[in-house]
Design brief:
Distance between the termini: 201 Å
Oligomer: single chain
Number of strands: 11
Largest sheet: 4 strands, antiparallel
Number of helices: 9
Radius of gyration: 56 Å
């Protein structure tokens, strides 16, 4: 008994029945065109062609113009080959994939964050991604201690052609380079230097190293700044490091207070010293001048005394009395020739009576 072969169900060429003939493709295509013509204005092939050309023209005009922002430049590829660079403004291009336009923000300050991510950042590649943020911050110092370091790299796109075509994914490459350089620089210092006094040195050396590598790789990137943010020890030793930092701050505070007291007391003492020295010099000059004057006066007096000793003696005696008598409040004149009991005469200004006898004119 012969075996009867049946067609598979749901024959793609039939209407769902088994054993049917294949469909007429020309007939089906004609039906589709007739339906399309019925929806076009006029319903004629000419109107259909005009409609297609109109759509083609609108699409071409819509894609022929492009705008370059003020902080960017456009790199044009024609058939995949570098064609030109366009400055900011409105420009034309060949549509339908002939010209490929790459907008590169050359005048914008870009940055990459390591160990954290800013929530409002518009650049998706700016901050650390997911759990890798903690791994970026974990570093080993030169004395085999651990530190958690967060930092920021600020850069600009200096050469858009190199940025697009010399290095694959330059932004991601810059992240890897920055992390490698930071680990290298931190690994040459002790944990105390990293956390306290070595921040500026780390920033400077990291910046120089990044610039050198970016120039070597021809990345088209200009590194402007490397800035350290938070530097902390690991959580198990956080308390101990805080105590060390507090002690260091207390030391700096005491040193500053001592310097302030020094600056207050020493200049005052220096001023008093200078004043005493000037007073001593003035007193010295005064005594020298007085002594020289006395010597000159004595020499002049000696000359006169040698010429007339008696006259000079009398004159000296009178001059001495002229200096002494005005300072005497009570004056008494003693007469040695009288034999009275009180041979004294009162010469004071308020006395007009002689002691022992009446005063005679």
């Amino acid at each position: 008994m012969p075996i009867q072969m049946n067609s598979p169900p749901n024959n793609p060429w039939g209407s769902g029945q088994t054993g049917g003939p294949p469909p007429d493709l020309d007939k089906n295509l004609k039906q589709v065109l007739d339906k399309l013509k019925s929806h076009l204005p006029g319903g004629s092939p000419k109107a259909f062609i005009i409609f297609v050309l109109l759509l083609f023209t609108i699409f071409a005009v819509w894609n022929i113009f492009y705008t370059v922002p003020s902080d960017s430049v456009a790199v044009v590829q024609r058939f995949g080959k570098l064609h030109a660079q366009k400055e900011p403004g409105l420009h034309l291009k060949i549509p339908f994939g002939v010209d490929a336009i790459h907008i590169v923000p050359t005048k914008r300050q870009l940055k990459q964050e390591f160990g954290f991510a800013t929530a409002s950042a518009t650049n998706p590649e700016q901050g650390s991604r997911g759990d890798y943020a903690l791994r970026e911050t974990q570093m080993v110092t030169g004395d085999l201690n651990a530190a958690l370091i967060e930092w920021v790299v600020q850069y600009r796109i200096a050469n858009p052609v190199n940025y697009l075509f010399e290095v694959r994914d330059p932004s991601e490459t810059l992240r890897y380079i920055s992390e490698s350089v930071m680990r290298e620089v931190v690994g040459d210092r002790t944990v105390d230097e990293v956390i306290t006094i070595g921040r500026q040195d780390i920033e400077f050396q990291s910046l120089e190293r990044l610039r050198e590598i970016a120039q070597t790789y021809a990345m088209g990137i200009a590194i402007d700044q490397v800035q350290l943010k938070n530097i902390n020890p690991p959580s198990p030793v956080q308390a101990s490091f805080n105590e060390v930092n507090q002690a260091q701050q207390e030391k700096e505070r005491l040193i500053n207070e001592a310097r302030r007291e020094y600056n207050r007391v020493i200049p005052l003492a220096e001023g008093e010293k200078d004043q005493r020295i000037r007073e001593a010099d003035g007193y010295r000059l005064q005594r020298i001048n007085e002594a020289q004057g006395d010597v000159s006066r004595f020499n002049a007096l000696m000359v006169e005394y040698r010429l007339a000793p008696e006259v000079t003696q009398r004159r000296i005696y009178i001059e001495h009395l002229e200096r002494v008598l005005p300072s005497i409040k009570h004056t008494f004149l003693l007469d040695g020739d009288k034999g009275s009991v009180l041979p004294i005469m009162n010469l004071s200004a308020d006395s007009s009576v002689l002691l022992g006898e009446e005063r005679n004119d």
